[in-house]
Design a protein that fits this description.
Catalytic activity: 5,6-dimethylbenzimidazole + nicotinate beta-D-ribonucleotide = alpha-ribazole 5'-phosphate + nicotinate + H(+)
Protein name: Nicotinate-nucleotide--dimethylbenzimidazole phosphoribosyltransferase
Bound molecules: alpha-ribazole-5'-phosphate, nicotinic acid
GO molecular function: nicotinate-nucleotide-dimethylbenzimidazole phosphoribosyltransferase activity
Helix content: 40-55%
CATH superfamily: Nicotinate-nucleotide-dimethylbenzimidazole phosphoribosyltransferase (CobT), large domain
Number of strands: 6
CATH topology: Rossmann fold
Structural class: alpha/beta
Enzyme class: transferase
Radius of gyration: 20 Å
CATH class: Alpha Beta
Number of domains: 1
Distance between the termini: 54 Å
Number of helices: 14
CATH architecture: 3-Layer(aba) Sandwich
Family: Belongs to the CobT family.
Shape: globular
Largest sheet: 6 strands, parallel
Amino acid sequence: MQETQIKVLDRTLDQAITEKINGKTKPLGSLGQLETVGAQICRIQHTLQPKLEEPAILVCAGDHGITQEGISPFPQEVTFQMVMNFLAGGAAINVFSRQHNINLLVADTGVNFDFESTPQLLNKKVAKGTRNFAVEPAMSIDQCKQAMQNGADMVTKLHQEGTNIIGFGEMGIGNTTSAAALLCKYAGVQPEQACGAGTGLDQKGIQHKAEVIEKALKLHQAITSPLEILACFGGFETATICGAMLKAAELKMIIMVDGFIVTSALLAAHAMQPQILDYCIFTHQSNEQGHQHMLSFLRVNALLNIGMRLGEGTGAAVAYPLIQSAVAFINEMSSFADAGVSNR
Ligand SMILES: Cc1cc2ncn([C@H]3O[C@H](COP(=O)(O)O)[C@@H](O)[C@H]3O)c2cc1C
Ligand SMILES: O=C(O)c1cccnc1
């Protein structure tokens, strides 16, 4: 993975941005988080006329050795079956991306299946699934770096094609366990707080998942560097998304952060380069309980909290119109002076 260097945002336009927003025909602050997001996009793009161009969502799929521990109610083959569903256009993320004209890309980052080669599926397979982190690190450092580089390459290409806003999605049976372990390591949260139902575990299942993580944390307690943590507990899709996010921020793209799994990839990226947060819009708060711990650790608020807990990038897709509204009001709304409306 080539080193990325994310710039801390230039804040010299901050006062002009605030004045522009406060000059609009509305009571101060009355557009709430749309104002915060609009200002953030102005800052990222260093302009008072922000633009969203060629929005994209990149869904990364990968399989997880940790499924051997019985931590998901669904069998591993659902990962490749859902990839087929993405390619056929029938998954939730297909529907919402079509609805909002978002360019949807799907990558095999490490699925345990031999797909027929098709231009619709980006082949970024590092291996056919990670190893079981209850026994050994999920991937080697080289594999982790390879996945991160693959993510960076895909983002670079999209950037060259004109994309300036990107969301990430994932598919990988077992990946809520991996994400929970990453949450424990990066944020110091306890397994019971980090674990949730995932695709639908009952209370006993959640307890078992927490125990699996607790044992794995003990086994790998010597591991402390951000990259080693990602390699030990992450998935190929998570590592790919981590590298992709780092590159997106370096290229000054807007990053739409989805739910629990995608935020676990961001925890890794944040541990490597904390300034990445300036480029992130948190689209929704997942109902997977650990997600609230991730958001509090990062000290951020999400735009939506509507009980979603699917992944695939669906939170990013459904929140995209709100981001469009944030940009539209900044560009199109009249000021008190233009409209002849009396200000206080
Ligand atoms: C049909 C189906 C579609 C999905 N789309 C996303 N996920 C989500 O659930 C999985 C993680 O949950 P766990 O850790 O409990 O296995 C991931 O693949 C995630 O993207 C799905 C899960 C299923 C079953
Ligand atoms: O919030 C998520 O990303 C999520 C939650 C449960 C299952 N899969 C994904």
